[in-house]
Amino acid sequence: MNAPTRLADEIADPLLIAGRAYRSRLLIGTGKYRDFEETRRAVEASGAEIVTVAIRRTNIGQNANEPSLLEALPPSRFTILPNTAGCYNADDAVRTLRLARELLNGRDLVKLEVLGDPDTLYPNIVETLKAAETLVREGFKVMVYTSDDPIVARRLEELGCVAVMPLASLIGSGMGILNPWNLQLIIDNAKVPVVVDAGVGTASDAAIAMELGCDAVLMNTAVAKARNPVLMARAMKKAVEAGREAFLAGRMPKKLYSASASSPASGLISPKVA
Fold first, then answer.
1. Segment 168-201, tens digit of pLDDT
2. Mapping DSSP to helix (H, G, I), strand (E, B) and coil, where does residue 178 land?
3. What is the pTM of this model?
4. Which active-site residues does the annotation give?
């Protein structure tokens, strides 16, 4: 892409991450599809420009004799965001992203996730903080998966992470946003992009996240495990765009009931009194 300033001029409402502008506010994962062809079709239907890749599970060149995801999703067209899915401690996460930087010719935008256990895939915050500190010190631009704890999110931002990515609910659960109040606290206080990561199940979940004021939404299972992944990807694209527009428009205030009609009362024809 061109320089951020030029692209930002071309986009009315760009997503800015680590100084770079993107048109799409939907980030999409590349795991759990039937094959790379289905992955490509779903990603293209989503309109996403940033795609995440689990380095421990997907070949992007580390296995020379196997098909590479980069053949289906070339880095010339997409921002490849390597992630540390499957890592359960800081050392493994840091080692994985160092390998990713080598495989991607020095690209330093990465997604950090350090998991707490294999059942819930809830983030291990202690190890996440430790890994984030090391990666930032080594020059990585870290987008970080975290809990919906506003204090933790603030600390990750203070460490230098370029985006905080709180869960909506557990990874792969499809339960949607279970705690909008915590998400709102994170959004209201963050000075870096807030990207909902994990738990989105359908298009309405993505729209709600954007209506709350999230800067973007990242998803994988909701698309990959839909009956029709390509169609769901298209639906998610529309939902993210609609949610963002609703947030920018500013919704009407909520009321238990309203004493003012939606149509004007003046000028009504009154019945004649006999």
1. 999 999 999 999 999 999 999 999 999 999 999 9
2. coil
3. 0.87
4. 111
